[in-house]
Design brief:
single chain, 13-stranded mixed beta sheet, 13 helices, globular, 6-stranded mixed beta sheet, 36% helix, 3 domains, alpha/beta, Purple Acid Phosphatase, chain A, domain 2
């Protein structure tokens, strides 16, 4: 009798453990869908979904085994079937761990951002299966414990949804982006809010709200357009009022906060220092020290591996730009290929509220041509899963570039994420490099290739010399500083942790 009890207990523990493993694997696979396309490209299309289906089916078998052990003292069917199911459960969990370790930088995306829409349905499905198969045969004590835990969870979730917890504050200093025709003052809060910029110009007080067709935007990110002359050498304050409830009739606003910048300093016409940051890919560094002394901060793209949520562009663009510039000097943002990826890209573009991502900025005798080099592979590449259609976008940008006129009085500098994507026709109807050469562009400041490197005109595919400004990972980044005076660009790249300067370049530009 004692032997039967021990055997039943062993079966019960095994069934419970491997059921939990199967449930975890089923839920984790829901998040690892971000990597399916890469695995499927080496096996066959739909392979990972078949594997996921096998894991879910195995989980249902584990529920059945657990029920059978609770009622009959032994697993469902033959013992070898139970062993096979347990092995599959263990393999499923190990496979998830391998995928997790293969991309630890994407862990938060795997666990939260990618599965956030479908995870509740997956969890509900597994919960219903559990309630149907196992819960009815649990002991009275187990039922009471589970009922109490479920009730507590429902109450907590309801309260959090109804009354958002936590304080209300700014995520960082504001960032002032130059977009060619005006400034965009961009800032973020840690809760939904309505935001504004206040300042005094020519004796008149201005308060400009972040709005869409007359309605204040309820968001964590705010972008407010301010004319150059209103902000240059002036103080300004960004303000935000927390949104407690935003409904069709009525609603509630809460706490109001503000952040003041004593003086915004426009970039000098000449003799100025620039900090260039590229391919930070979610690295976390002391941005304030990196931007220390800069009179212009340029972000050359690939802020993250993908844009899956508001946090991705707050943490990896707005916070770095705000801290590096202190909101006191202008910044420029150049889109990278990874800044085109992820379901939150449209939200990012709408909330940054730039009119375009290719434009020209004039600073004294210098003309900066900003390009959006888009994706780095053809539209039909398997990575894009049919979402990309850059042919028409590239054609519009190329038409814009061909309309640019040469200014004999300006030094011409190009800012682009990739130094070579516009060199050949590919799916671009007009090679943009030809248009850049016509306006006298002499240098491209860029990133994309995850190194610091100076390439001469003779070696460049575009016929224009270029400098690759570095990249980042974790808490380390190679960033680039540049002193500009009389058409001479004195460039060096610096590792924030070691101070190493592997590449130095002096590039003399010529007017016209």
């Amino acid at each position: 009798m004692g032997g039967c009890f021990v055997k039943k207990k062993r079966f019960l523990i095994s069934a419970a453990v491997f059921t939990v493993c199967s449930v975890i694997a089923s839920m984790l696979f829901n998040g690892f869908r971000i990597s399916f396309v890469f695995i499927d490209s080496y096996v066959f299309d739909g392979f990972c979904y078949c594997l996921w289906a096998l894991i879910v089916i195995n989980t249902l078998f584990q529920f059945a085994h657990l029920r059978s052990v609770l009622t009959k003292g032994q697993p469902l069917g033959k013992k070898p079937l139970f062993i096979v199911n347990c092995i599959l459960s263990a393999i499923s969990l190990v496979l998830c761990l391998i995928l997790f370790l293969a991309g630890p930088g994407e862990a938060l995306n795997f666990l939260f951002y990618v599965p956030r829409e479908t995870a509740p349905y997956m969890a509900a499905f597994l919960a219903v299966c559990f309630l149907m198969a196992v819960f009815p045969v649990c002991s009275s004590l187990c039922k009471k414990i589970m009922a109490s835990v479920t009730a507590f969870a429902v109450v907590v979730v309801s309260l959090v949804v109804a009354i958002p917890v936590g304080g209300f504050d700014f995520e960082s200093a504001p960032a002032v982006f130059d977009v060619g025709d005006a400034y965009r003052v961009v800032f973020a809060t840690n809760r939904e809010s309505v935001g504004c910029v206040s300042y005094t110009y020519n004796g008149e007080d201005y308060t400009v709200w972040d709005t869409t067709t007359g309605r204040k935007d309820s968001s964590r990110v705010h972008s407010v357009e301010i004319p150059y002359e209103h902000l240059d050498n002036n103080a300004y304050t960004v303000g935000a009022v927390r949104v407690i409830e935003d409904i069709a009739y009525g609603g509630h606003l809460g706490k109001e906060i503000s952040y003041q910048v004593e003086q915004f300093r426009p970039c000098p016409d000449d003799n100025f220092d620039v900090t260039l940051i590229t391919d930070n890919h979610e690295c976390r560094v002391d941005w304030a020290s990196i931007g220390d002394g800069a009179e212009l901060c340029i972000f050359l793209g690939d802020i993250a591996n993908g844009v899956y949520s508001t946090d991705h562009y707050i943490d990896n663009l707005i916070v770095p730009a705000g801290e590096a510039s202190g909101g006191a000097v202008p910044s420029i943002f150049v889109r990278g290929n990874h800044d085109h990826r992820g379901n939150a890209v449209p939200d990012m573009l709408a909330e940054l509220d730039f009119d375009s991502y290719y434009y020209q900025i004039e600073i004294g005798d210098y003309c900066f041509t900003v390009l959006d080099t888009g994706e780095d592979k053809p539209d039909d590449n398997y990575e894009y899963a049919g979402y990309n259609d850059y042919a028409s976008y590239n054609a519009k940008q190329a038409a814009w570039a061909s309309s640019l006129e040469k200014d004999e009085e300006k030094y011409q500098i190009v800012l682009a994420h990739s130094p070579t994507l516009f060199a050949v026709e590919d799916d671009r109807e007009v090679p943009i490099a030809e248009s850049l050469q016509k306006i006298g562009a002499e240098v491209i400041l860029c990133g994309h290739e995850h190194q610091t490197l100076y390439v001469t005109q003779d070696q460049s595919e575009t016929g224009i010399q270029y400098y690759i400004c570095g990249s980042g990972s974790g808490r380390s980044i190679f960033y680039t500083t540049m002193h500009v005076q009389d058409g001479l660009l004195s460039i060096r790249s610096v590792n924030n942790l070691t101070g190493d300067t592997p590449v130095l370049a002096d590039i003399q530009l010529h007017r016209g």
